[in-house]
Amino acid sequence: MLLSSLDLSRNPLKLQNPGLEYLLKNMTSLEFLDLSGDDISSSVPRFLANFSSLRHIKLRDCQLRDEFPSAVFHLPKLKHLSMGNNSNLTGFLPEFHNTSLLEKLYLFSTGFAGIIPESISNLNHLKVLSLQSCHFSGHIPGSLPNLTQLTYLGLSKNELAGLVPSLVSLSKLTILDLAYNKFEKGSMYGWINKLTNLNELYLDSMNIHDEILPYLANLTKLSIVSMSQNFIYGSIPSSFTNLTQLIVIDLKINQLQGQYLALF
């Protein structure tokens, strides 16, 4: 079949009998596949890695299970891979090649585990990396700051440890979410205030022992600041009045002192 685009997303479909494998097996010319929100309740067919024309794969919230075929990551034209919110879907990140065209990678709320490989820096076109609520461990790779096209970095609710590397080179970031990991005590003084395009900042339970708030005052595009359950001390500086776009501030369970109400 020469079908190039298949979008059946957000329908009350149950693709179980016949299943996903039966549906797709002859659609070798597919470029766009979106079944998000449909009840598939099966594994991802391994032959999908042979569909060399695929550019967009969106299988979010499909009740997928078993191990994701890692060869799919290496599809030569793949730009968008969205597998999020499939809690029974397991897998590991492969060694990435510098020929990849991948721009958006959504694996949030899946059973993906293991380390984030240093070779992730080979994803030169990557704009979105969404790995929240998985089981990744080890360190944030030192090569990650080389992903200078990133606008969204989500690594929260994993088992990452060690120190957070400087992300000052990620100047296009609009959303940074590193919350709820196992990072060591460290300082973000040298780079956090350089990310002037940030709209949303999530650093909850990050073992932050700094008087960090004054360093956020020039991030004037911020709408959400969430830094609860840390050891942040000092007071909320008067320069916070520069943050005119703020709609949410969550600083609970810290060591702040002083008076704040006059600032708001």
TrEMBL record:
<keyword id="KW-0808">Transferase</keyword>
<dbReference type="GO" id="GO:0005886">
    <property type="term" value="C:plasma membrane"/>
</dbReference>
<protein>
    <submittedName>
        <fullName>Non-specific serine/threonine protein kinase</fullName>
        <ecNumber>2.7.11.1</ecNumber>
    </submittedName>
</protein>
<dbReference type="GO" id="GO:0038023">
    <property type="term" value="F:signaling receptor activity"/>
</dbReference>
<keyword id="KW-0418">Kinase</keyword>
<dbReference type="GO" id="GO:0004674">
    <property type="term" value="F:protein serine/threonine kinase activity"/>
</dbReference>
<keyword id="KW-0325">Glycoprotein</keyword>
<dbReference type="InterPro" id="IPR032675">
    <property type="entry name" value="LRR_dom_sf"/>
</dbReference>
<keyword id="KW-0433">Leucine-rich repeat</keyword>
<keyword id="KW-0723">Serine/threonine-protein kinase</keyword>
<keyword id="KW-1133">Transmembrane helix</keyword>
<feature type="domain" description="Disease resistance R13L4/SHOC-2-like LRR">
    <location>
        <begin position="118"/>
        <end position="256"/>
    </location>
</feature>
<dbReference type="InterPro" id="IPR055414">
    <property type="entry name" value="LRR_R13L4/SHOC2-like"/>
</dbReference>
<keyword id="KW-0677">Repeat</keyword>
<keyword id="KW-0732">Signal</keyword>
<dbReference type="InterPro" id="IPR046956">
    <property type="entry name" value="RLP23-like"/>
</dbReference>
<keyword id="KW-0472">Membrane</keyword>
<keyword id="KW-0812">Transmembrane</keyword>
<dbReference type="Pfam" id="PF23598">
    <property type="entry name" value="LRR_14"/>
</dbReference>
